């Protein structure tokens, strides 16, 4: 796993995609794949209470902001803020979607899943524009 960040940085430099874009789109996705497998397995079993470690990470960020002398997010680069704000918007959709069960799906996916995919695509486009 220690090789992954340096490969991501090298890929960002050689392709011109930007380190934040590569970090979120590729490195972040790669390191999150085990959690995706757990979430999908939990969803198939109907154990939706197992889906929450990502939301806990957002809680830790909020606690860090309380303990940081000054404004924590003011220290972040704009591309990092784009990723944080996109993630927070996605967390909001997850919490709203988890609060009720969709009675009807649009095509194969429910509205919250489609909205999550759209937010992720918009977040990647935002990161790409900030490179």
Write the layout of secondary structure elements.
Blueprint: H1 3-15, H2 19-45, H3 53-67, H4 78-98, H5 111-129
Helix pairs in contact: 1-2, 4-5
Summary keywords:
131 residues; mainly alpha; 0% strand; globular
**Strand fraction band?**
under 5%
Beginning-to-end CA distance, first to last residue: 25 Å
- What kind of sheet is the major sheet? none
Helix/strand/pairing class, anyone? mainly alpha
How many domains is the backbone divided into? 1
Quaternary organisation? single chain
| Average pLDDT rating | 79
Report what the structure shows.
This protein is mainly alpha-helical. It has one domain (3-129). Helices cover 73% and strands 0% of the residues. The protein is built from five helices and no strands. It has helices at residues 3-15, 19-45, 53-67, 78-98, 111-129. α4 (78-98) packs antiparallel against α5 (111-129). The longest helix is centred in the first third of the chain and has 27 residues, at 19-45. The chain is globular. The two termini are 25 Å apart. The model has no long low-confidence stretch (mean pLDDT 79).
Short précis:
This protein is mostly helical and about 130 residues long. The protein has helices at about 5-15, 20-45, 55-65, 80-100, 110-130.
